[in-house]
Write a structure and sequence with these properties.
Length: 256
């Protein structure tokens, strides 16, 4: 995908726009929403998968069953744990599927770590959001500029910032393309049931207390009963714990 990035040039049809605004999608299953998305947008639709939580892998599996040519990309921040890289390779082999790896701009990362240090994110929210912007938000924006629709594994009960997540929405931050959140109404148990039933490969850190694995320095295991997102940027207030990828404000930082 990075090789053929181009701006979003295909306007959404009236049928697509009216279907989204009707909210009829709220009654559809995850598979039905993905089928609708692939039918309307392929090949300009792709799954954004962090390879750190089972939600993205469930969607990858579903999309692959619907269309083996379905696309998936991962933002390689340069700070991912080895377990995540291992999983990316397992997925490539299991599904015989190319995973589109997207890197941040090298010159931006170099300038940031030269002026603020390699572990800047622990020092302030501003530093953490700067790092997320450079390593995640900008690469995501660049990637989405070549798509008409993208798929994400958000669930409403994951965090206080996600309780209103619709199954289909227009993503105003990314040029008005369509964002599909097919498992917005799923519970964690629903996700794990699908994983077991379909033997979906998952990140081995999930079984070590990490429900959500992001960058290595910004992820930790959680204790039983803790909020599912408590292991991400745990030194910050819950309200600030988004990387900017799934929020409307450009200056929130970045993060999957
Ligand atoms: Fe940087 Fe941490 Fe954000 Fe990764 S999660 S981009 S290391 S601040």
């Amino acid at each position: 995908m990075p090789a053929d990035v181009h701006t979003n040039e295909k306007p959404l049809s009236d049928g697509v726009l009216s279907f989204i605004s009707s909210r009829e999608s709220e009654a559809l299953s995850a598979q039905e929403i993905l089928t609708w998305g692939i039918k309307n947008f392929a090949p300009r639709i792709a799954l954004s998968c962090s390879f750190g939580a089972p939600e993205g892998l469930v969607l990858l599996d579903m999309m692959h069953r619907i269309d083996p040519r379905s696309r998936v990309f991962v933002l390689d921040t340069g700070r991912l744990p080895q377990a995540t890289y291992d999983l990316i390779d397992r997925v490539r082999e299991r599904y015989d599927k190319p995973v589109e790896i997207v890197f941040p701009r090298a010159e931006d990362v170099e300038a940031m770590v030269r002026s603020k240090g390699v572990n800047l994110f622990y020092e302030s929210i501003e530093n953490r959001q700067l790092c997320c912007r450079i390593r995640k938000v900008e690469p995501l924006r660049r990637t989405l500029s070549g798509l008409d629709a993208w798929v994400a594994g958000l669930r409403r009960d994951q965090n206080v910032t996600r309780t209103e997540t619709p199954k289909l929405e227009l993503d105003a931050v990314h040029g008005g393309i369509v964002k599909l959140n097919p498992i917005a109404d799923w519970t964690s148990d629903d996700v794990m049931e699908y994983v077991r039933a379909h033997e979906v490969p998952t990140n081995r850190l999930n079984a070590q207390g990490y429900p959500s694995v992001g960058c290595d320095p910004c992820s930790r295991a959680i204790a039983p009963g803790e909020d599912l997102r408590a292991g991400r940027w745990w030194w910050e207030d819950p309200e600030t714990r988004e990387c900017g990828i799934h929020v409307d404000e450009e200056d929130q930082g970045s993060g999957i």
